[in-house]
Amino acid sequence: MDARQFHLHSGKKGSALAVRVRPGCGRNEVTELSPDGTVKVNLTAPADDLKINQALVNLLAEVLQVPTGRIEIVAGVGGLDMLVSILDLDAVEVQERLLRKAT
Questions:
Q1: Cα separation, 44 vs 22, whole angstroms
Q2: Residue 49 pLDDT exceeds 90
Q3: Alpha-carbon distance 47 to 34, whole Å?
Q4: Taking a C-beta distance cutoff of 8 angstroms, is the pair 73, 82 a contact?
Q5: Given this model, what pLDDT does residue 12 score?
Q6: Is the pLDDT of residue 61 over 90?
Q7: pTM for this one?
Q8: 89: CB partners within 8 A, 6+ apart
Q9: Residue 8 to residues 1, 5, 11, 61, 90: CA-CA distances in angstroms?
Q10: Regarding the domain delimited by 14-101, which CATH topology (the fold level of the hierarchy) does it fall under?
Q11: Side-chain half-sphere exposure of 73, counting CA atoms within 13 A
């Protein structure tokens, strides 16, 4: 059997966050960085999927100081537990920026 050759390309680089959202709160804020790595956030948006998703992206963009286009919810779009991708920002820098903003 001949060895098959693959043409590999560089993928997107960045980091991923597990996020737990609490809608309907008084302020948009990062409230906790849990020991399991989950980032807990409060959002003023009501329990409406589209409003929660947009509010989360906006909050993370502000906290992480990146454009909203570099943040993507990659899993859990319809729920309160989400996996969020941040392009072009490594995990160490994400953690440092989150720690500065966590209340």
A1: 9
A2: no
A3: 22
A4: yes
A5: 66
A6: yes
A7: 0.83
A8: 14, 15, 64, 66, 70
A9: 21, 9, 9, 31, 22
A10: Conserved Hypothetical Protein Mth637; Chain: A; (3.30.1200)
A11: 22
Contact 41, 21 (CB under 8 A): yes
* pLDDT interval class at 101 (50, 70, 90): confident
Tokens for 82, please give them.
């989400």
Q: Give pLDDT, residue 84.
A: 92
Instruction: Express each pLDDT in 3-47 by its tens digit.
Output: 666 666 555 688 889 999 999 999 999 998 888 889 999 999 988
Pairwise CA distance, residues 62 & 41, whole Å:
13
Q: HEC string of the chain?
A: CCCCCCCCCCCCCEEEEEEEEECCCCCCEEEEECCCCEEEEECCCCCCHHHHHHHHHHHHHHHHCCCHHHEEEEECCCCCEEEEEEECCCHHHHHHHHHHHCC
* Residue of 94, 84, 88 lying closest to 11 (CA atoms): 88
